[in-house]
Amino acid sequence: LTQRPYYTLRHIESPDLLSWPINGAPCMQPKTNSDTGESDEYGFGRPVVIRRQANDYIMLYSVRNFSSSYRLDWATSTDGLSWTRQNGVVMTGDVGAWENDMQCYG
To answer: Does the chain have fewer CB atoms within 10 Å around its N or its C terminus?
Structure first.
């Protein structure tokens, strides 16, 4: 059995912007298959949070799967801590097109 890495998104706060805790509170985890407990997803990259208005946040992020390359996805939140995945791929392309191969941003 091959050991696979899994990466969660975590939230941390600093009291002074100099001292940071080592571990944060998980706010989003890779999806798992409800039947097997296995996951094709294993991590997230480059999350960006935008506050649209009071109690209305959107997060854009990359999702990494074992079966495919990175894909852009998004989630919403009312407090910036608990997130609801929208499961709506942000961008798709035709088979063989560059944007269908891999999507990530920096």
So the answer is: N
